[in-house]
TrEMBL record:
Gene3D superfamilies: 3.40.50.11440, 3.90.226.30. It comes from the Bacteria. This is Nickel-dependent lactate racemase. It comes from Actinopolymorpha rutila. InterPro entries: LarA-like, LarA-like_C, LarA-like_N. Pfam families: Lar_N (PF09861).
Length: 425
């Protein structure tokens, strides 16, 4: 079977067209009307605020379609390992007034994915080493424990509701990625992220089809006992405008939405540029997420070039992983693989983040680390802290985006972090 799709390829509209709110809501209502939900519990897994998505519109349509039919509705925010969203932020994100959830979404519970609390997670067993070796194309041959948020396991039906964008770890986000790493335990988060890092950001980001990382998380998701459904959406970056909606299983809906995302979220250049100025979106309030301004542009930077992350609003490396990141700094992949004994005890997802930010490079004991490009922070982090991370520093006050944009060798990217830039060749 294939997913039901409106907007984008396979629908009545050309890629990039906006699907009106009324049409989107009707699509949700019609598709959920065909799902036998009476008397069953439903868990809706949604992204946190680091993704552009008209969640109030979509969640409102879902609630209207299922209220009075399901025995209980839980909205679970897929944090991965991001910080928990407080009530005020949740209310703004989901479309209700603080303290008035019941008024807007009667019979609904909203919870963060409490990845830091062991009791919030349930084990679904191990993926055996032979299976891991198969899906990772031989990069790993070790078992991995599959743990997931208890609300997913305790529900009869689970609906993934969220956007699809090019992604540095898995190729394109969305679908089963909202389970792993979205509401997962650390074991599979660490393995999947380090797998993506070994393949490298440039090689995997925006790659169509089932990448090794996607194969791993699909294999883990198959262990979820609940019925799995997905409403995958393609959103105009930095807006609430919908390009397309796809409904089906997480695998089907993701594949349809990823095809649209590949045509709407990727910009092609004819030749590399010497310098990129990424004007990082304010939705990213720590370097952990603001670094998407690096991931999405690395493929178009010439050897010896520079990426400048302009984000004066960023004053933290990571509220959950900052201590570890500041301990190891930012380095290329080969820096870690070339001296693995030094780093074997570090969380592999943290190492993956480090390599993604620093980009491609080489390391050997004789010559040390030689990175392909320079990464410069023009953020709220001071110079001492920035250089301590093994990154270059630039005072944000020295950046004039309009002046830089007049330089033919500089690419200035507004609202950086969701749109991928690649070379046409």
């Amino acid at each position: 079977m294939s997913a039901d799709l409106i907007g984008g390829p396979g629908g009545t509209d050309a890629p990039g067209t906006t699907v009106p709110a009324e049409q989107a809501a009707a699509f949700v209502a019609e598709r959920l009307a065909g799902v036998p939900l009476e008397g069953r519990s439903l868990c809706v897994v949604v992204p946190d605020s680091t993704r552009s998505c008209p969640l109030p519109l979509l969640l409102g349509a879902v609630h209207q379609a299922v209220h009075g039919r399901v025995s209980h509705l839980t909205v679970l925010v897929a944090l991965g390992t991001h910080p928990a969203m407080p009530e005020e932020a949740l209310a703004a994100h989901l479309g209700y007034r603080p303290g008035e959830l019941e008024r807007t979404y009667p019979g609904t519970t909203v919870v963060n994915h409490e990845w830091w609390i062991p009791e919030a997670l349930v084990s679904l067993g191990d993926i055996p080493a032979a299976e891991v070796a198969e899906v990772t194309e031989g990069r790993f041959e070790e078992p991995v424990t599959v743990r997931i948020n208890r609300h997913v396991v305790d529900s009869d039906v689970v609906l993934v509701l969220g956007p699809v964008f090019p992604h540095e770890v898995v190729g394109f986000s969305g679908g089963n990625k909202y389970f792993f790493p979205g509401v997962a335990g650390r074991e599979i988060i660490d393995l999947s992220h380090w797998l993506g890092a070994l393949i490298s950001n440039v090689e995997i980001i925006g790659t169509p089809g089932v990448t090794p990382v996607r194969a791993l998380i699909d294999r883990a998701a198959a262990r979820i006992p609940a019925e799995r459904l997905c409403l995958a959406v393609v959103v105009a970056s930095g807006t609430k405008d919908l390009h397309a909606l796809a409904f089906g299983t997480p695998e089907e809906a993701w594949a349809a939405a990823a095809e649209v995302s590949a045509q709407t979220h990727v910009r092609y250049l004819d030749r590399p540029v010497r310098r990129v100025l990424s004007l990082v979106s304010p939705r990213y309030d720590e370097l952990w997420t603001a670094s998407k301004g690096m991931y999405k542009v690395e493929p178009v930077v010439a050897d010896g070039g520079q990426v400048v992350l302009y984000a004066p609003h960023v004053h933290e490396v990571s509220r959950t992983h900052g201590t570890l990141i500041e301990k190891i700094g930012y380095h290329c992949r080969d820096y870690f693989t070339g001296q693995w004994d030094r780093f074997a005890d570090m969380p592999r997802s943290v190492l993956a983040h480090s390599t993604h930010v620093r980009g491609a490079g080489r390391y050997d004991a004789e010559h040390g680390e030689r990175c392909r490009i320079t990464v410069t922070l023009a953020t709220g982090l001071d110079e001492q802290r920035t250089r301590g991370l093994n990154l270059d520093y630039l005072d944000p006050a020295a950046v004039d985006a309009e002046e830089w944009a007049r330089d033919p060798e500089t690419l200035v990217v507004p609202n950086a972090g969701e749109v991928l830039f690649r070379l046409r060749s």
